[in-house]
Amino acid sequence: MTTVLALRVAGLSWRVRPRAAAVTLGGLLLLGVLMALNMRIGDIQMSLAEVARATFDTASAGHFVIMDLRLPRALTGALVGAALALSGAIIQSIARNPLASPEILGVTTGASVAVVAGVVVSGSAYGGASGLLSTLGIPALALAGGLVGAMIVYTLAWRRGLDGYRLVLVGIGVAAVFTNVKFWLLTIGDVNDTSRAMVWISGSLNGRGWEHVRPVGVALAVLIPLALLGARSLDALRFGDDTITGLGVRMNLSRALLILAAVLLAAVATASAGPIAFVALAAPQIALRLARCAQPPLLSSAVVGALLTTGADLIARTAFSPVELPVGIVTAVLGAPYLIHLIWRART
Amino acid sequence: MGATAVAPRSHTLRHRRLLLLTVLLGAVCVTVVLSVTVGSRPVPPADAWQALTAPAGTESHIIVRSLRVPRTVLGVLAGLALGVAGALMQGHTRNPLADPGLLGVTQGAAFAMVASIILLGAQSLLAYIWFGLAGALIASVGVFALGMVGGRGGPTPVTLALAGTAVSAFLYALTSAIVLLDEQAMDVFRFWQAGSIAARGPDVVWQVLPFVVAGLVLAMVNAPGLNALSLGEDVARGLGQRIGLTRGVGVAAVTLLTGAAVAACGSLAFVGLIVPHLARSLSGTDHRWLLPYSGLIGVALLLLADVIGRVVAPPGELEVGVVLALLGAPFFVALVRRRKPVRL
Amino acid sequence: MRLQAAAVKLGYGERTVVDGLDLVVEPGTVTAIIGPNGCGKSTLLRALGRLLKPRGGEVLLDGKRIDRIPTREVAKVLGLLPQAPTAPEGLTVADLVVRGRHPHQTWYRQWSSDDEAAVSEALAMTGLADLAERPLDELSGGQRQRAWISMALAQGTDLLLLDEPTTFLDLAHQVEVLELVRRLHQAADRTIVMVLHDLNLAARYADRLVAMREGRVIIAGAPHEVLTEELLREVFELDAKVITDPVAGTPLVIPIGPHR
């Protein structure tokens, strides 16, 4: 049973689900701890106290390291995770399908194709240029690829309105094309380029700086309020189309706007850190089970996504130290058993 | 009056369905002929026929017998297996996003293959396939067991699908980690991932044949039960269907079919994602017809894509999975756009 | 004495809904189970139809424990229709009714003349022969419900369990469905057990009413024995006047207001 509290302040009123709120707040606390732990790691190991001092004392020795290297990386991880999870939560609600993720909107697959093509084509032929490609070229390529991919899916699925089921089917088709083009590009490339491309495809937070934080941060700052406004209609979208119209939701408009928000979130996140696997699919499912809601709660999903990515990054950097795994590999290793545990617990 | 109204109707429907089945069989035959005759060295149909009936040891006869025929037979097996398995999987989960690898079969096979390379030093194609099969079976059984635990009357479609996705993601992560650390594994993996039915000898065909045949038999046994299940679990039980048994048989069939296909031909699982939607638009929701339609469309598409892949990029070849996606997916999208999709 | 529940204990998860309930379904009658929401009506019906396994006690079909009889054998004598069933989109009426023959089919005998006859009869009986081609989702609510009943009918069983067959239907369609139930009963002396919400319709269309409250049977008997003003107060906490239905002669409940 989910209880709902009413929060009323001076003529304004909101409905608050205590369990979802608890998950969100508790998650944020845990997130802070994990990010601090994450910032200890690097060429110079620091204690938590040193991290704190270096953060706030501008004169301290570690200040530069924390502010210019470690904090942006930790923030990128958390923000990217939140953006992907929020995107997944929106899509799962609209498609009314727990298996849906930004992949069916063509975003992540489109971005992957663009980047792999970029790496394989320019690749080892321009050894010197690859440094430039990885700092400037890849995020731009990924963003363009993701947006074009989403545009293709959106255009093809639109037919006198947007039907959730048709969107899913069109998404499958387009994703199949993108994925297989990616596979093919991987087979024609040099095996070294292939490995480099694989790292990006898996999603990585290595060397992420403020230039990666800003776009995701801005996107979240704009799109989270927008998505929360749309959440009211998401609640209604859960029902069939007939019921929705009956509830007075302007179906196509709100659905279109929400999908647009999901696309932008996923595209910006992917551009920053690559298509980190599984977060968009698992975080909403984990959040809805923790909060005991019928459908993914948006804020809790975002927090769980940030937690999952940050926790995965921590493990990715420490487990096989000094070798650092791409974070996208660890998200699944961390998230999958937990999701299974939650499913399992619900049934007993 | 009722008796006369129903009888003729069901007969015309039956005729229409049989006619469609014949058309699909015809399409399969055409693609089989194409697959045996077309290639970097074209062989006229008459010559190919001679190679089969009275081999003379000429170069073209050797090509037909040792390369083209095993390749074609493998294409037929894989197309049938993936088409049927996809339809079963979507029927059981009632989810249009379900592909036959959903229960961890595909990623189980991939993981076992790359693990066998780095841990046991496996080198040959046959070894990869055995490991792939074993990995597929173990992963699928594991997912089904996870879904079973604590549940009354067997796993529900949603938990099964989610558990399968989670296990798949987990295994894929492990596979990615291995191939990032080991270049030889990476090299095998990237070609497996693209999917191909080329350069596999008759021994591979014999290796996977029993699994495919067993899977197809189980699938056909499963069809009426799946029809009952599609009316909801309560109605199905009211009709005397044992839910747990039906799901178990379905999962076993999917595992055998998909495991055999992906172990031998690589990650072609999305054949099983798209083809059932095409078949459903022809057959409706009756699985006794949907399964054969889906299997035959799978074969025709797979072989056609393979033939096209041989000729578009001479002197090389394009992997069948790539062609299939480029060929099948736009067709699929056009179909979805043009008419109201038949929902699960 | 074909179907009976003896001291059954039923529940979901940690919740016990029904404890120690006895019920004998009289053969050849139409029985309606009534009671307030959450009293365990549907739970009882599910147990009678072996959809829910009793925690204690037993459900007997022809004197044997129903969970010991192969489920397919049960399906040949007992048909059931859950509340608000759903079908795949695009399924036609005929396809649905054909699936009612499932328990009689095997892989080597998929479409016998018996099947053909049973389906034709079921369609004719429910007045759907002309709509056989139409997809289920294009029908009106009443027609759709008739199609589902037709499926249960094609199953060819003497016993039919219907869980709220009139939910979501307007009054005219409720009457249409219940008239059909009555015809089914009269045509072949079928035994029918249904859960009904509307007391007046239950009184009109059932031979026997079973009134439940909090998982127990309060009273079972003919409508005029069960539907009394005292019972309505006890079971439904409803102050009501009971008069005689001027059309059917059965009891008619006129609510006054909630009992305090």
From TrEMBL, chain A:
Cell membrane listed as a keyword: yes
GO CC terms, sorted: plasma membrane
One annotated GO biological process: siderophore-iron import into cell
Subcellular location: Cell membrane
UniProt keywords, alphabetically: Cell membrane, Membrane, Transmembrane, Transmembrane helix, Transport
Protein biosynthesis keyword on record: no
CDD domains, A to Z: TM_ABC_iron-siderophores_like (cd06550)
A Pfam family annotated for this UniProt entry: FecCD
Gene Ontology molecular functions: transmembrane transporter activity
Membrane topology: Multi-pass membrane protein
Positions of transmembrane segments: 73-92, 104-126, 132-157, 164-185, 216-235, 256-278, 323-344
Family the entry assigns: Belongs to the binding-protein-dependent transport system permease family. FecCD subfamily.
Protein name: Iron ABC transporter
UniProtKB/TrEMBL annotation, chain C:
Subcellular localization: Cell membrane
Organism of this sequence: Nonomuraea cavernae
Family annotation (Pfam families): ABC_tran
PANTHER family per UniProt: IRON(3+)-HYDROXAMATE IMPORT ATP-BINDING PROTEIN FHUC
Membrane topology per record: Peripheral membrane protein
GO cellular component, one term: plasma membrane
Entry-linked PROSITE patterns: ABC_TRANSPORTER_1 (PS00211), ABC_TRANSPORTER_2 (PS50893)
Stretches assigned to the ABC transporter domain: 1-239
Superkingdom per UniProt: Bacteria
Protein name per its UniProtKB record: Iron-enterobactin transporter ATP-binding protein
GO molecular function terms noted in the UniProt entry: ATP binding; ATP hydrolysis activity
Gene Ontology annotations of biological process type: iron ion transport
Keyword Iron: yes
Keyword Manganese recorded: no
UniProt KW keywords: ATP-binding, Cell membrane, Ion transport, Iron, Iron transport, Membrane, Nucleotide-binding, Transport
InterPro entries found in the cross-reference section: AAA+_ATPase (IPR003593), ABC_transporter-like_ATP-bd (IPR003439), ABC_transporter-like_CS (IPR017871), P-loop_NTPase (IPR027417), Siderophore_ABC-ATPase (IPR051535)
